[in-house]
Specification:
- This protein is α/β, with parallel strands linked by helices and 241 residues long.
- It has one domain: Acetylglutamate kinase-like (Carbamate kinase, 3-Layer(aba) Sandwich), CATH 3.40.1160.10.
- The protein contains nine helices and eleven strands.
- The longest helix is centred in the middle third of the chain and has 25 residues.
- Keywords: Allosteric enzyme, ATP-binding, Cytoplasm, Kinase, Nucleotide-binding, Pyrimidine biosynthesis, Transferase.
């Protein structure tokens, strides 16, 4: 019998991962693939929470560079994450995975407000919980949201799914053929080497709360299940090696 090594996880998906080869918007085939991978994990009785980015629709920093007020641009980005979250919820429920979306910005006609104890109760009942709208505050990324929610719900690990790379490299492997892939890293190494795995706020929050991070590719079907079962794929980032 397959035995997962984690009981409760947070899956971090970038908005770009949902766009697939389209580069913008939502690729329905990619969304279905992700939903099926999540279902595999749920069927192992693993509690799954998800944080989705919004970069496939809108990026706050890019908007501010075009002259939009930074706080306003970030709020627009939060709304983009809600759109992605609703699409992912629909994909999951289409294949009979009960799912709840909780938003940091109140919009009760669309989703539940984020309430920590309610989120934990949903997880305990076997429902997937998708955390949308970031932290609800501008200037904070969805990476920081994943770190914050992981600490709040006492998740054992953050699974950072990438659509272009299969781990953390010393340089961009698409630009530098000599780039080295790391099997393990500490958060301090990530910060000191400026590896760009997560922003510094998220990395510091994970380090301070001893939350490990596994960076892996989501493009290969079944990878989320492999990580949950303890297979050594991707890169593990933790407090100390």
């Amino acid at each position: 019998m397959e035995r997962p090594i984690f009981k409760r996880v947070i899956l971090k998906l970038s908005g770009e991962a949902l766009a697939g080869q389209l580069g913008y918007g939502i690729d329905s085939e990619v969304m279905t693939s992700i939903a099926l991978q999540v279902k595999e994990v749920v069927e192992l009785n693993v509690e799954v929470a998800i944080v989705v980015g919004g970069g496939n629709i809108w990026r706050g920093i890019a908007g501010s560079e075009k002259g939009i007020d930074r706080a306003t641009a970030d709020y627009m980005g939060m709304l983009a994450t809600v759109m992605n979250s609703l699409a992912l919820q629909d994909a999951l429920e289409t294949i009979d995975v009960p799912t709840r979306v909780q938003t940091s910005i109140t919009m009760q006609q669309v989703a539940e407000p984020y309430i920590r104890r309610r989120a934990i109760r949903h997880l305990e009942k076997g429902r997937v919980v998708i955390f949308a709208a970031g932290t609800g505050n501008p200037y904070f990324s969805t990476d920081t949201t994943a770190a914050l929610r992981a600490a709040e719900i006492e998740a054992e690990v953050i699974l950072m799914a990438k659509n272009r790379v299969d781990g953390v490299y010393s340089a961009d492997p698409f630009k530098d053929p000599s780039a080295e892939k790391f099997e393990t890293l500490t958060y301090m190494e990530v910060l000191n080497k400026n590896l760009g795995v997560m922003d510094s706020t998220a990395s510091s929050l994970c380090m301070d709360n001893n939350i490990p991070l596994i960076v892996f590719s989501i493009t290969e079907s079944g990878n989320i299940k492999r990580v949950v079962l303890g297979e050594k794929i991707g890169t593990i980032v933790k407090g100390s090696v």
